[in-house]
Design goal:
The protein has 458 residues and is an alpha/beta fold. The protein contains 20 helices and 16 strands. Bound molecules: adenosine-5'-triphosphate and magnesium ion (MG).
């Protein structure tokens, strides 16, 4: 419940009000005059100040003004035996929340207290919400210079000057979206929308109407005309995330809009012209997808006019200190809390970790550390280290773990882990394992069939 400060020179009034509010579950602090009340406010946060108006030493109005200097957000309720419109107006101007006329009933003050506290809680909540929204809309600066990030920044400035299609490649969490937003923000399209579509999240049909829109009645469930992302992003930028996941049928349509800037809504024969800059991202190797026949070569060339390759975070460990500073500042601003430092040993630990989830994973660890660190000012290495799953560095220990297992199981385990390491890239996996791509494909196919059999049999 709340911490309430009551200020009144009449002891009887003070005590009865205090016991009334204490019965409601509040923590009540009492003061006999203004200076004493200010001292209490200085000593700890007060959620609500209820003060008499006429007091010796300092009037309630003076106390209100001084108290607001100490805690600007603190709601104040004035009690007065001589309520006039004049005093009420003046009190509100000074930032009082409300006033109550003496004598009053217990229920009356209880209701007023509840209302005031609720109002103040909502106000705080709104402020937090607003800062969270502002935070989400802030253009995210692209931090770092290491591992080729400086050249990437130059490239962003250059491509921003034209409307050329950009393909941003990189492992998950390396900042592909940050780069796309930076290009948009640096371009002349910055005042027009930047819209994003995740190609992996929707089925082919849904993605088609998401991108190009549809006419009323184009298919079952299309009960309204819908404008697609290409139309809505006209004059701006469209970010196509995980472009490798787009189905072959749609690849042809996408190629056309890239080449001719024209398309039709699903179910329509009217051709529309749009001016949209496309930025596509992928964390798969598109060349490989082309080789395996899953991705159209002509579309690949059309998208790949300017490629930007983001290095994984483990190749830019020198940027980690600056990234940490940036993240900790952002969190402090967002949560309106003091900046938390991070001890040098913890920074070194983070620089040695291989970051499979890249900058996003680093960000998660930092958020978690800010919440869970018990030391008030500084994030310690011992807090973070249990969260970093460092791979076994001792090959003998690793081999001992495998001893006694069937070779077929070991083979399968190694192949799957290698596939994971290369994010499903079969050519790289096969090369690393020293086997042919076809051999790899056959093994995977067989395991899949075995798995299906088990499922059917179960
Ligand atoms: N260079 C950077 N500077 C500051 N923040 C970064 C940087 N790179 C990435 N981030 C932050 O890391 C998080 C992940 O970045 P982003 O969403 O751009 O990754 P992504 O490559 O698009 O990942 P995915 O492939 O999973 O979609 C974001 O919160 C982003 O703000
Ligand atoms: Mg992304």
């Amino acid at each position: 419940m709340a911490r309430i400060l009551i200020c009144d020179d009449q002891e009887l009034m003070r005590d009865s009000l205090a016991s009334l509010l204490a019965r409601e579950g509040h923590t009540v602090v009492a003061a006999g005059d203004g200076p004493q009340a200010l001292q209490r406010i200085g000593a700890g946060k007060v959620d609500l100040l209820i003060t008499d108006l006429k007091m010796p030493k300092m009037t309630g109005m003076e106390l209100l003004a001084e108290a607001k200097k100490l805690q600007p957000d603190m709601p104040v309720v004035l009690m007065t035996a001589f309520a006039t419109v004049q005093t009420a107006v003046e009190a509100m101007k000074l930032g009082a929340y409300d006033y109550i006329q003496k004598p009053f009933e217990g229920d009356e003050i209880k209701m007023l207290v509840d209302r005031t506290l609720e109002h103040s809680r909502l106000k705080t909540e709104n402020a937090a919400l607003k800062s969270a929204v502002q935070d989400a809309n802030q253009p995210r600066p692209l931090i770092g210079m290491a591992g080729g990030m400086d050249q990437i920044k130059q490239k962003i400035e250059l491509v921003a000057k034209s409307s050329v299609t950009v393909l941003v490649r990189g492992e998950s969490g390396t900042g592909k979206e940050v780069v796309a937003r930076a290009i948009h923000a640096a371009s002349e399209r910055r005042d027009r929308p930047l819209l994003a579509v995740n190609c992996a999240a929707l089925s082919e049909n849904l993605l088609e109407s998401e991108l190009f829109g549809h006419e009323k009645g184009a298919f079952t469930g299309a009960d309204k005309v819908r404008r697609g992302r290409f139309e809505l992003a006209d004059g701006g930028t469209l970010l196509l995330d995980e472009i490798s996941e787009i189905a072959p049928g749609l690849q042809a349509k996408l190629l056309r809009v890239l080449q001719e800037s024209s398309f039709e809504r699903v179910g329509s024969s009217t051709t529309q012209l749009v001016d949209v800059r496309v930025i596509a991202t992928t964390n798969r190797d598109l060349e490989d997808e082309v080789l395996e026949g899953r991705f159209r070569q002509d579309l690949f060339y059309r998208l790949n006019v300017v490629p930007i390759d983001l290095p994984p975070l483990r190749e830019r460990a020198d940027d980690i200190p600056e990234l940490l500073r940036h993240m900790l500042h952002r969190i402090a601003r967002r949560d309106q809390q003091a900046f938390k430092h991070i001890e040098p040993e913890a920074v070194r630990l983070l620089q040695r970790y291989p970051w499979p989830g890249n900058v996003r994973e680093l960000q998660n660890i930092v958020e978690r550390a800010v919440i869970l660190e018990t030391d008030p000012g500084v994030i310690r290495a011992e807090t973070i280290s249990p969260w970093l799953r460092l791979p076994t560095q001792n090959p003998v220990a690793a081999a001992q773990d495998l001893a006694g297992k069937p070779l077929a199981d070991i083979e399968r385990q190694v192949i799957i882990s290698t596939l994971e390491r290369f994010r499903g890239h079969r050519v790289k996996t096969a090369t690393a394992l020293g086997i042919g791509v076809r051999t790899l494909g056959m093994k995977l196919k067989k395991w899949k069939e075995d798995a299906d059999l088990v499922e059917v049999g179960a």
